[in-house]
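Deliverable D2.4 — example input (structure tokens):
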């Protein structure tokens, strides 16, 4: 069986580097292109050289893995789909409009694609369990905590979790009792009618708690990525399965 040829964009970054190493170590996939336009960046893997720009069209590849940021990820994913290459977007912060742009390109070109807010299998399960809990306990808030170099807030995982909770609620949540906000942001941001609190500190990687409150009880669902290797099982799964999709999907669970 031939290997899956993968182009990694953002290849010298924290997630891109880990992804290059993972692909190099796997028997059924290979790095076809590694793209990073950062200043003075070096390839993290011996024998794999970096190029600055993603070619147009994208040739000689089956799958594109995107780990830059929302705007360039949209542009690169659309270019991939237009070239018949399946995009996997790991970068966070894409607006609904940007997601639709990629979905349209996938549909027009008849290729599958996926946006993955979180590649950690445990985080996918956390979202699934939160969805289940929200059916019974509609009052929930999300606390997400990330390293101090994360440029977007709230995290893509927190936004997706809030959407899932909102969709799964069978009864309305209780009204927020707060009438006086003494400091702006004290109650977090309302995302799909779920309050989300974002913490940024050195030492953290990616962590999230979903706290559900009921009558005389509190349920906390918690997930911690303590190393970026936690994302790699999901990255490999997405690379192996994305070509089975015939549309642009949201979430790793669509491939599990
Ligand atoms: P990083 O800053 O370490 O890496 C980003 C890399 O992209 C840099 O090397 C930069 O030079 C490169 N880059 C930026 N714009 C580019 C462009 N236009 N063309 C080519 N290269 C470009 O960031 P990171 O920690 O690796 O995170 C990358 C993205 O992945 C972020 O959006 C982050 O939120 C997201 N993320 C997603 C998951 C997930 O599970 N889905 C997990 C962690 C991080």
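Example output (designed residues):
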């Amino acid at each position: 069986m031939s290997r899956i040829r993968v182009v990694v964009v953002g290849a010298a970054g924290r997630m891109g580097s880990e992804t290059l190493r993972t692909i190099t170590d796997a028997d059924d996939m290979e790095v076809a292109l590694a793209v990073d336009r950062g200043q003075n960046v070096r390839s993290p893997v011996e024998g794999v050289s970096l190029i600055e720009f993603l070619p147009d069209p994208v040739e000689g590849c089956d799958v594109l893995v995107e780990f830059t940021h929302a705007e360039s990820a949209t542009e690169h994913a659309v270019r991939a789909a237009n070239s018949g290459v399946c995009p996997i977007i790991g970068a966070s912060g894409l607006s609904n409009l940007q997601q639709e742009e990629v979905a349209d390109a996938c549909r027009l070109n008849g290729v599958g694609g996926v946006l993955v807010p979180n590649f950690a299998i445990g985080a996918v399960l956390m979202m699934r369990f939160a969805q289940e809990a929200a059916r019974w306990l509609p009052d929930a808030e999300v606390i997400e905590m990330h390293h101090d170099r994360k440029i977007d807030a709230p995290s893509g995982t927190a936004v997706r979790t809030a959407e899932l909770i909102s969709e799964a609620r069978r009864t309305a949540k209780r009204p927020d009792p707060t009438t006086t906000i003494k400091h702006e942001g004290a109650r977090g941001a309302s995302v799909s009618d779920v309050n989300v609190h974002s913490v940024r500190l050195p030492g953290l990687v990616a962590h999230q708690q979903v706290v559900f409150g009921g009558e005389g009880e509190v349920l906390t669902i918690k997930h911690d990525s303590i190393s970026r290797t936690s994302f790699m099982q999901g990255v490999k799964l997405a690379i192996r399965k994305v070509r089975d999709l015939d549309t642009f999907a949201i979430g790793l669970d669509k491939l599990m």
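The first helix runs from residue 14 to 25.
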